[in-house]
Design brief:
The protein folds into two domains: 7-201, Orthogonal Bundle (Fumarase C, Chain B, domain 1), CATH 1.10.275.10; 209-273 and 284-316 and 349-509, Fumarase C, Chain A, domain 2, CATH 1.20.200. Helix content is 55%, strand content 5%. It has 20 helices and nine strands. Strands 4-6-7 form a three-stranded antiparallel sheet. A two-stranded parallel sheet has the order 1-2. The two termini are 24 Å apart. Its EC number is 4.3.1.3.
Length: 513
C-alpha cells in the first residue's frame, strides 16, 4: 500500500503490510465506526459486572497471584492505576520506535475488537497517540512473553495516562503529559478492567515478527543475488539450478531461490565463457551449488512463520475476555508460545543463510579455490591485504548468529508466586531475531562487496545484466580494485544499500525474467 494511505482498524484483521505501514512509515490510523459500537456494547457487560457483589477477575479482584482478593468499588480506579504503574517496570536500553509503534497498533487492534470491555475513549486515545507520533519510552527487558508482553505494554498504557516519558513526533524525549497536551489528547482515567486489557497481549513479539518477516523477504532475495555474484565471479555453473532438476525435489522455497539464481545469472557472458566440453569442473562446492537449498529452507520457514503471524493478527488476545454472548471468561490466549517458537525458527534460518554466504566469500579470497582470482582480491599481493579482514568480520558475525540461534522459547522461568509457572520468552526471541537480521544484512553486504570486486577482476569478461547492475550500484558507494584503503566506510555503505532494499530492487529490475 502507499505509505501515506490510512489503515482502518477494527473492521477486519490487519494485514502484515498494514503493520509495517503504520509502525515503520507512520501511516495514519482510522477506527471503524462499527467497531466502536461493539466496544461500547462490551463495556456495558463490564459495567454490569462491576455492580455485581460476586467477584469477577480483572473487574473487581486483584491480578495474577492476587486474583482471589476482592477490591471494593471505591478502590478500583486506584487498582487500575496501580497495575499500570507497577507493571511499567522495564529496564535497559530504549526499544526502537518502529517496535513500539507496532506494539501500540496491535494492542489497539485487540481493543477495537469489542472483546476486551474497555470504553470507546480508550480505543480513540490509542489511535490518536499513533496518529500524533507519540511513542512511549519502552525498555529492553521486562517481558517474559506471558501473560503477554506485560512490561512493554504497561509503559504504553502509562503514557496514555499522561505519565512517564515518550518520544514526540520530532523524536524528542519529553514527559508524556506534555506530549499529550501538545497533541490535544486528554490523559486516560482508567475504569474497571481497562488496565488489565491494556497489558495482556503478545503484541510486542508479534509486531517484531511481522517486521522481521518483511525484512527477511527482501534479504533472502538479496542472498540469492549475492550467491549469483559469487557463482559468476568464481566461474561456477548455473546448470545445477535448472528447473527440471529442482522439480525432482519439490520444495517450494528451493524452487523460488533457484528461479532467482537462473534470472540473476541469465545472459551472463562470464558464465557462458566456460561452458562446454572444455570446462573440466564436474561440480561446484556446496556453498555455491546448494545455495537454493539453503536459501529455500529459509523461505519455507518464513512461509510457516507468516501463517502463524496472520493467525495471530486475526486473534483477540486478552484475559479475561468478553464473549459474544456476554460472558467474561478467563483463558490462556496471552501465552506467547505460537509466536515465540517461530521467532526462534527464523533465527536458525537466518544463521544458516549467513553461514553459507560467509563460506562463499571465503572461497573468493582463497586462490586455491577461486579459480584464478588473486589472494584476498588484493592489488599488490603481500603489500596489500585486500578483503582479508572483511571476511574476518563476516566470520565473527556468523559466529554470533549461531549463538543467537539458540532458542529462547525453551527457556521458561516461573514468576508471580508460581501462578505464571510456564512462560514463552517470546519477547526475548524477537529481540535476538532483530539482532540476527542486522547481522545477516551485514554478512550479505560483505559478500556483495567481495563479489563486486571479483567481477571487476575478471575483466575483460563481462558480468550479466543483474549482477553487473548491482556491481555498478556498489560502485556508487565503494571503489573498485586497487591499493588498500580504509574499508569500514565502504562496508557500512554497502550494508545501507542492502538493508534499504536497493540491492534487491536493482537485481530484480535487471534480471533475465
Amino acid at each position: 500500500m502507499p505509505q501515506n494511505s490510512s489503515v482502518v482498524v477494527g473492521a477486519a484483521p490487519l494485514a502484515p503490510a498494514d503493520v509495517v505501514a503504520i509502525a515503520r512509515h507512520h501511516a495514519p490510523v482510522v477506527i471503524d465506526q462499527g467497531a466502536l459500537g461493539r466496544v461500547a456494547d462490551s463495556r456495558r457487560v463490564i459495567d454490569a459486572m462491576a455492580a455485581d457483589p460476586v467477584p469477577h477477575y480483572g473487574v473487581s479482584t486483584g491480578f495474577g497471584a492476587l486474583a482471589t482478593t476482592f477490591i471494593a468499588p471505591d478502590r478500583r480506579r486506584q487498582l487500575q492505576v496501580s497495575l499500570i504503574r507497577s507493571h511499567a517496570a522495564g529496564t535497559g536500553p530504549e526499544v526502537e520506535t518502529e517496535v513500539v509503534r507496532a506494539l501500540q497498533l496491535l494492542r489497539l487492534q485487540t481493543l477495537a475488537s469489542g472483546r476486551t470491555g474497555v470504553r470507546p475513549v480508550v480505543v480513540e486515545t490509542y489511535a490518536a497517540m499513533l496518529n500524533a507520533g507519540i511513542t512511549p519510552l519502552v525498555r529492553e527487558y521486562g517481558s517474559l512473553g506471558c501473560s503477554g508482553d506485560l512490561a512493554p505494554l504497561a509503559h504504553v498504557a502509562l503514557a496514555a495516562m499522561g505519565e512517564g516519558e515518550v518520544r514526540n513526533s520530532d523524536g524528542d524525549l519529553v514527559p508524556a503529559a506534555d506530549a499529550l497536551a501538545a497533541a490535544g489528547i486528554a490523559p486516560l482515567v482508567l475504569e474497571e478492567k481497562e488496565g488489565l486489557a491494556l497489558i495482556n497481549g503478545t503484541d510486542g513479539m508479534l509486531g517484531m515478527l511481522v517486521l522481521a518477516l518483511h525484512d527477511l523477504e527482501m534479504l533472502v532475495t538479496t542472498a540469492d543475488l549475492s550467491a549469483a555474484m559469487s557463482i559468476e565471479s568464481q566461474l561456477g555453473t548455473d546448470a545445477v539450478f535448472a528447473e527440471d532438476l529442482m522439480a525432482l525435489r519439490p520444495q517450494v522455497g528451493q524452487a523460488a531461490s533457484a528461479a532467482n539464481l537462473r534470472a540473476f545469472l541469465g545472459n551472463s557472458p562470464m558464465v557462458a565463457s566456460h561452458k562446454g566440453p572444455d570446462d573440466g569442473r564436474v561440480q561446484d562446492a556446496y556453498s555455491l551449488r546448494c545455495s537454493p537449498q539453503v536459501h529455500g529452507a529459509a523461505r519455507d520457514t518464513m512461509a510457516h512463520a507468516t501463517m502463524i503471524a496472520e493467525r495471530e493478527l486475526a486473534s483477540v488476545v486478552d484475559n479475561p475476555v468478553v464473549t459474544l454472548d456476554g460472558r467474561i471468561e478467563s483463558n490462556g490466549n496471552f501465552h506467547g508460545a505460537p509466536v515465540a517458537v517461530v521467532l526462534d525458527f527464523l533465527a536458525i534460518s537466518v544463521a544458516d543463510v549467513a553461514s553459507v554466504s560467509e563460506r562463499r566469500t571465503d572461497r573468493a579470497l582463497d586462490p586455491a579455490r577461486s579459480h584464478g582470482l588473486p589472494p584476498f582480491l588484493a592489488s599488490e599481493v603481500g603489500v596489500d591485504s585486500g578483503l582479508m579482514i572483511a571476511q574476518y568480520a563476516a566470520a565473527g558475525i556468523v559466529s554470533e548468529l549461531k549463538r543467537l540461534a539458540a532458542p529462547a522459547s525453551v527457556d521458561s522461568i516461573p514468576s508471580s508466586a508460581m501462578q505464571e509457572d510456564h512462560v514463552s520468552m517470546g519477547w526475548a526471541a524477537a529481540r535476538k531475531l532483530r539482532r540476527a537480521i542486522d547481522g545477516l544484512a551485514r554478512v550479505l553486504a560483505i559478500e556483495i562487496l567481495t563479489g563486486a570486486r571479483a567481477l571487476d577482476l575478471r575483466a575483460p569478461l563481462v558480468a550479466g545484466p543483474a549482477t553487473g547492475a548491482v556491481r555498478d550500484l556498489v560502485r556508487t558507494v565503494a571503489g573498485g580494485p586497487g591499493p588498500d584503503r580504509f574499508l569500514s566506510p565502504e562496508m557500512e555503505a554497502v550494508f545501507e544499500l542492502v538493508i534499504s532494499g536497493a540491492v534487491a530492487r536493482t537485481a530484480k529490475e535487471n534480471a533475465n525474467v
